[in-house]
Fold these 3 entries.
Entry 1:
Amino acid sequence: METDTYAQQLELFQLFQPTNVISCQTKFTFVDLFAGIGGFRIPLEELGGICLGYSEIDKEAIKVYQKNFIRDVNANEAYLGDITKLNKLPFEIDVLVGGVPCQPWSIAGKLQGLDDPRGQLWIDVFRVVKANQPKAFIFENVKGLTEPRNRKSLEYILNHLTEAGYVVKYQVLNSYDFGLPQDRDRIFIVGIKNDIENCWGFTFPKPIDKQPKLYDVIPGIQRSNYPKKKFPPEVLFADGKIPAYRGRFQKIDELNDFFIFADIRDGHTTIHSWDLIETTAREKFICQTILKNRRKKVYGPKDGNPLSFKILETLISSLKAEELDILITKKILRFVEGKGYEFENSKISSGINGVFKVFLPHADAVATLTATGTRDFVATISLECQEPEIYKQVFIEKIYKKNKFKPLTAQDYARLQGFPDFFHIAENETTAKHQFGNAVSVPVVYHLMKALLHIIL
């Protein structure tokens, strides 16, 4: 995010600091449910809202929230505590907002949906909405809630909110489309009281005309601007076959702007453990053979099966057990008793040597920040190589081996979520990352609320 944008945010933030007095300048009032550290509150106050109360039970999040928003002048603002205890509020409000706990529908969780106690918090949301009848509400959750396996849960939520007297719409919005270099999809559920004129006229905001790079947001990394070459599929992909799943920021005709460290996947920017330590051409061939065959159904039902020596003998001519033993000694392979050989690094998210992904400074976006943390890093220097045959090796020699990359800090997390630089974060780095991973992206809420205000004001 550009510096002048942060300066503008600071000016707006100071202008709309809550005073616990609803003045003629106040455009609307709101209550901050599942408040976290205030990702909803910052943009709503920028747009002229005043918070009459907030609900949160995480003690560390409350500390950060109060440090940033609860001043002496508004010390009487209502701390509403646990949403499970809330019903009719002691005041009327225009808007309810909140990021309802997402773990029940997140692939990072156990996918228990409404059977998870956290999923049942939606029942408390229904009760609070029905009892207080705000003009509108905005609730945020993970994209997983929209997936087929959760369709019944989503319909259950939408139906109950509709029955409370609202026109309800939802859409998945990506943080990148609203000026942040983060690939973060989230569902936003918006409800407007069905007796408000033009309540059906609400439309979700369109992407803004701003596509920042990582170097625009993360300090201390090299800025670069050079033309990228285009390549036919047969140059970038084995046999010219483009993989079925490609992320939004993986171009089919350009070299990736990030490198993945994994032994159980392959690609033109996948770094394997045998690329990082001294291995012979024969050892590399053995590893690649295991990599290419471990997921074939003929060898087992799992998405990656240990391969026995008997199977490997049919795939690799003149194979000797001693060759596999050497790869075990190098901690590339391991032997699973009664099953066979598999890679030591057999969990993709664990990466290699504590590194999963390294993004180049000119990358469009990092992967979704999560509360559980990631093993993602950003290179501090650019890589201008545009030759597919040597791209990985140049990265290893110039960036990885020279330690020209750094982990994402909590302050980086803050900026990647659109929080202004003056925001006071938790003192503990791990706690702060957890909080920002749970937070909502500030600019997304800003543009969403701005569109909503055209209907309800």
Note: Residues 442-456 form the longest helix (15 residues).
Entry 2:
Amino acid sequence: MNCYSTWKLLFGVIGILCILSNDASDALAAKTRPNVLLIITDEHNFRTLGCYRDLMPREQAEMWGLGAVVPTPNFDRLAKEGVICTRAYATAPVCSPCRAAMITGRYPHMTGVVTNNLVLDRTIPTLADRLNDAGYRTAFMGKWHLGGNGKPEWQPKVDGGFRFTKFMFNRGHWKKFDIKDGKPFIAARKGKQPTYGVDGANNKTFSTDWLTDRAIDFITNKDAKEPFFTVISYPDPHGPNTVRAPYDQRFDDLPFRAPRTYRSGKPSPKWLGPAKKHPVFRGNDMSRYFGMVQCLDDNIGRLLSEMDEAGRLENTLIVMTSDHGDLCYEHDRLNKGNPYEGSARVPMIFRHPKLITADQVYTDPVGTVDLTPTVMGLLSLDSNPKDQGRDLSSKLSGKQETQPDVRPITFLRNSGTKPQWLAAIDARFKLIISVNDEPWLFDNRKDPDELENAYHKPEMKADVERLAKALCEYGTQMKDPHLANEKIAASLQTILGAKTVCQSSE
């Protein structure tokens, strides 16, 4: 063999060894790369979780009567072993627009989903698309609500790029599921039509239990080699406030009382809108709501136990949040859709023993629009330059402290095509600019019940101006059409000065 042939053979061997080495490295990286579990609850009031109550004065923590609480040891465990965000908000406090922001890292008006039952713009990469590209096996179980009007529509046509969607349904708050001929179906029926009835559901067929079982099967699959990204999206504790036995009566004896803000006699902001019918406070309604929350908590405990037994828990990034809150009679309202705390503030917890320092409390504002870029950051995967949400991974991991002179702000908007209000929120204040009222400023430190408008207080002038300026910059940079509304623009101009021009740069 001549010298040239020898070198050629040698370089060939080196090339093969490099390929094998790279393949081995890729395989090792895939094996050690963190799994991701995203838990989404629906219409979930943050005060029902013990980990949030522990950080609040008792009168705030026990809003529905002193002693009227639901134990949530498993949600609390996630918070204790990770970081709890105390000022987390639904970017638009209604199901579909918030979910669109959550799964894309874009504000709702950029996703094609500004209100419920619209179709997600699939030219925008979702978190599933990004993790598919990174070698994850992606799955979604439960309520999707980004595929249009289909109801329930199993395996929606528009599915956000998730690869396993057998147990994904588009929308609805069904209470009883089963499998027939290998396919999922709604097991509560009136004639041939599916209903929201509980219909004797048990721990195998009730929606929360059933979806947990499906997620466990996927997560603990011993034959799977790739890391998983699994979303389990529970349709509870959204109304109707019904739950299977024994949770349906477990909290009936609690000393439920109407919230302090219920029929308070204080003037309501016009952006709240007139109530079609003021709800009559019913303790049994809250009892069922608590029952749904405890059923969720018990299933989270079961999920964590199964993951631990399968050796998947310690290398899984767990994120828990909700698409919006539920006022639960505060301010004479139920449900969501406005910027009050009970409506817009959501639970948000991140846990991973190696990526996140345990037992942290993060008090700066977070928006659900920040979720996708933050998860990508925690996984050390490439960001998308078109992300509008913030990558908070370094702050939430405990590796970077917030600078004392920096006051982060998150932004909220009403759902729908017609502008009604925009809000800017920092660690203490919430400024709301609307089309039909003067600006409102809530001071969470001095008025956590949100009963007083602090906008006209002279000592608040600098904070009002700071938040208004940030709202102006947000609207311009993010091309939010709400900012082009003449009444919203006029309010911002009044605060910031006649020479200030705030409008969306569409």
Note: Confidence is low (pLDDT under 50) at residues 17-29.
Entry 3:
Amino acid sequence: MLRPGNSISTFKWMGRLALAWAVLCCWPVTAGSGGVFYVAENGDDTSGDGSIAKPWRTITFALDSVPDASTVLVRPGLYNGRIRIRGIFDQGVNVRSEIPYQARLRHTATVITVFENARNITLHGFDIAHAGPGAGGLVVQIQDLGGVTDITLENNILHDSYNNDILKINNGVSNIVVRGNLFYNQQGSDEHIDINSVADVLVEDNIFFNNFAASGRTNNNDTSGYIVIKDSNADDDIYIGARNVTVRRNIFLNWQGSAGANFVLCGEDGQPFYEAFDILVENNLMLGNSSNAIRAPFGVKGCRDVVFRANTVAGDMPGNAFAMRLNREGANPPLDNIFFYNNIWSDPSGSMQDFSDTPVNDTLTVELLNNQYWNAGQALPESPGDLVNPSDDLALLEAAPGLPLQNNIQTPYWIAAQNIFNGGYATIREAFTALAKNYGLPAAASPGIGQALAAQMPVDDLLGLVRGADPDIGALEQGQETFFQDGFEP
């Protein structure tokens, strides 16, 4: 169980691994001892041998053919059709776009399926989307129909589902990492990521937004949240309730969804059990740069043991609640052990009229402690009909964090014809760093500097930099020390 007293040590290893990745992600990757093999648009699975002179045609055939510890380089081009990711590897196989984002994976149904006999496989640097309108459901699906574990999606552009979720992780899989990707434009009442009845999932360093016009699509304001964590199928797999899920160091912006949905939601289906537990949401930046109504940036329905800490929620969040919705639906049990520590909730427009939507009988235990609040000098909203109000915070800090204004934020969608992200960024990480620094960094004189409750802070911040001994409230630390001193050298 994720307990407030031991969560730092429990998740410290995640911080260490993530710090290493933050350095290594932008550096060339040395091939594994299994060798380097090639897939190309003009390759052949029958006559090819995986060499650069005679490449294979499909990723699936390559995974069926390479030894453990191999690197599969996929040459630039358009690859149509379903890709089956499979293979049991002890050391792991890395499947990479040879030139980042230049291998385009498309299909009129699910583009990538990871269903059975798949372990220790990484997909890196691809442009993955549906082929267009009328496609079958899902862009990528990872589910356990037999032996699926330790799958990593890293530095990919995952976008434009025309049917259902962009990424679905479900039915009993475990040890899944979703790191450093760019997500945008799902379809209908579905999500960017549906994390459903699984264990040990890490979602970090990603950018989530919608910009339907950029893809030539209409915004119907009917899509669901960016991330949902839940259990839809009860005992149909080995888990009852998604568990041990961490959502950290992500950026959420440009809401174009339903007025009843959230950036991140735990629980959704009104089940008679806890749909999710042992959930950690930390170091995220949630930007209210859109005029579209949102239900609340963060929501919990029928879950337990959820920690929301060191996040920065900033901007004009039109809709129902500026911070959170905690409730139960259908047959849900009451929520229990829901904790909010060291977060910034800042509305520079002074339009925060409702802090939370929290029916008093729907949650057994909730704690709000050491958070910073700002409503542009207007009174913080209090509602006697809600369980959670700013005045419940015994270490409340009401002060302007000095965050930059969110005028004219450019969403970093991929412009394939120019081989660049909107805003002029060459990589996802470059776009991530710019958004973080431009919109998430408090002023040097912010009253929240050095005021975090240290026992409830991650070891690092939004950019993966080590926090000081007296950490700052919110997702991004002022005056961070780099982590090279901690043993991670490029």
Note: The first strand starts at residue 35 and ends at 39.
